[in-house]
Amino acid sequence: MTTHLHRLTLIALLLGLLSSCSSVLFVAPYDAEFDRGLASLQEDTAVFLARMRRTRGSHDANATFYDEAAARVDALRMRAELYGEKLNQGTLTNLDRLQSAFKDLQEAHRDGPLTSSVWARTMNTHFRALLQIELHKKHSLTINPPEEEPS
């Protein structure tokens, strides 16, 4: 009986040791395509806001920007969801905030021209949060790169 108990204990220890050697992922991995898409949307938004301050463009004449921005945020969200909500919660939450900020921006634009630089700072705050998350993911790859799967 004690021999059987020693074997079970040894097996349990070996299983514990083996499972502790496997890599555990607590955050979604860095996604270069997501990063590029986000940076592109940030740049387009900055250009749009600078143009609106300079030209005092109307909402109606620029409504397509908001449709395109919403679609791009949705596409980024869908890509982020591929890694699962648990692993990408920070990114998903911040994408929701960005989408909400675009809606607020659009409402303000409906009320009149966007002449204040406050909107650029507000939007940059949301983009900065998302870009910082991706930067941390990218940086974590250099600290602890994933092991390659055997071919």
- Residues in helix, %: over 70%
| Anisotropy-based shape | rod-shaped
Which secondary-structure class do the elements indicate? mainly alpha
Major sheet size, sense and barrel closure:
none
Beta-strand residue fraction = under 5%
Q: Give the termini distance in whole angstroms.
A: 44 Å
Describe the oligomeric state of these chains in a short phrase: single chain
Number of strand segments: 0
User: How do the SSEs run, as a string of H and E?
Assistant: HHHHH
Q: Can you tell me the residue ranges where pLDDT is under 50 for at least 5 consecutive residues?
A: none
State Rg. Answer: 23 Å
Mean model confidence by pLDDT? 87
**What is the tally of helical segments?**
5
**Overall number of structural domains:** 1
Strand and helix map with partners:
Elements: H1 2-21, H2 32-55, H3 63-81, H4 89-111, H5 118-143
In short:
This protein has 151 residues and is mainly α. The chain has helices spanning 2-21, 32-55, 63-81, 89-111, 118-143. Helix 2 runs antiparallel to helix 3 (63-81), helix 2 (32-55) runs antiparallel to helix 5 and helix 4 (89-111) runs antiparallel to helix 5.
Description:
This protein has helices at 2-21, 32-55, 63-81, 89-111, 118-143. It has one domain. Helix 4 (89-111) runs antiparallel to helix 5. The model has no long low-confidence stretch (mean pLDDT 87). The chain is rod-shaped. The longest helix has 26 residues, at 118-143. The protein has 151 residues and is an all-alpha fold. 74% of the residues lie in helices and 0% in strands. It is built from 5 helices and no strands.
